[in-house]
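Appendix B, Record 12. Input sequence as logged:
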Amino acid sequence: MPKHDMTRHDIAFLHTAEVHISTFQSLVESLNHTISVRHDVQPNLLKEAIEHGLTEKLKNDVNRTMQLAANTGAQVVVCTCSTIGGIAELTKQTGSCISMRIDRAMADLSVQTFNNILVVAAVESTLQPTQALLNESLTSANTQPKITLKQIPDTWEYFLAGDKKEYLNRIFEFIQNEKDGFDCVVLAQASMADAALRFKDSDICVLASPELGVKKAIEYLNKKSV
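Logged structural output:
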C-alpha cells in the first residue's frame, strides 16, 4: 500500500523508517484483514530528535504529522517510534480520532507482570522517553518493579546501514550477556522486535512493542465501532 495514500483508513501509522511498513502491515492483516491501513514514513523526525532532542519545533512537526493522518479519516493514529512516541500520543485530534504510541501496551504489561525489568535500546535518544513512559505505567498500575535501562553500544549504525542481521545479532548477544538477575527484558524500539523471537524458549521473557501495540490499536478501533 502506498505510504502517502490519502484515502480513508481505519488505522494510520507514523513510522520513522521505511522497513516498518511491511512489519505493521503484516501484523494488522494477520490480526484482522478487514482493517484498512495507511503508512506515513518520516525519518527526519527521528533524525531531528537524535541531533537536537525533543525541541518545540520537533513537537510541532510530530503533532502536525499525526493530525494530517487523522484528517485523512483514520480512527486511530499510531506512532511506532519510541523516541517521539510521547509527543505523538499527546496530539490533540479533532473529532473522535485516537492518538497512541506503539510501546504503551508493552510498558503497561511489563510493570504489571514482572519485578525486575531490563530495558534495552539501540539508540540513546529512546532511553529517556521510555523511562518516562514506564514511570507513567508504574503510576497507573501502582506497582514498584525495579527497572534498569541500558543502551546497546555500537549497534544502531547497523540498522541505519540496512544490515538487519548484524543489528539483531548484537541485540541478542547483549541481552544474553546482561539478562541474569532479570525476569523480563523490554525492547524499547520497534525495530528490535525480531530479536525477541530468539528468546521464545528461553527462561526470560523478552517483550517487543509491535504486536502488543497493534492489538491495542485494534481494540480501540473495535470500541469506537460499537
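The longest strand covers residues 116-121.
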